[in-house]
Backbone:
């Protein structure tokens, strides 16, 4: 897993999907199987944020990227309808995000995690 400081990509590509502007535009981090892209250089040291992205790596290892990404996107699209097009609620309620947000502060979580933990959320 390689951490990549990618400010241009994060601001201008993930920024297309974010309502924030200025320095906050774009996602702070994005998991991409072999890499974790980060918008801000200081986040290379943010253990909780990195742990969040590494929880997505565990989910991807059990599903393969070919299932993980379509399920992630499909869950988001269903949630858009469930939460009346509130994009923030739709995102936070993706089962993979629920597991990651719930456990990101526990840096030992990945060691003790049960397989398919996201399934029960
Ligand atoms: Zn996430």
Residues:
């Amino acid at each position: 897993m390689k951490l990549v400081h990618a400010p241009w990509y994060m601001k201008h590509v993930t920024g297309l999907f974010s309502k924030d502007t200025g320095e906050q535009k774009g996602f702070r981090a994005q998991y991409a199987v072999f890499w974790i892209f980060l918008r801000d250089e200081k986040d290379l040291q943010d253990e909780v944020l990195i742990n969040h992205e590494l929880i997505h790596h565990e989910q991807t290892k059990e599903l393969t990227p070919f299932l993980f990404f379509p399920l992630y996107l499909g869950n988001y699209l269903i949630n858009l309808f469930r939460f009346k097009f509130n994009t923030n609620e739709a995102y936070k309620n993706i089962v993979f995000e629920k597991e990651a947000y719930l456990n990101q502060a526990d840096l030992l979580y990945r060691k003790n995690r049960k397989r398919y933990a996201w399934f029960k959320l």
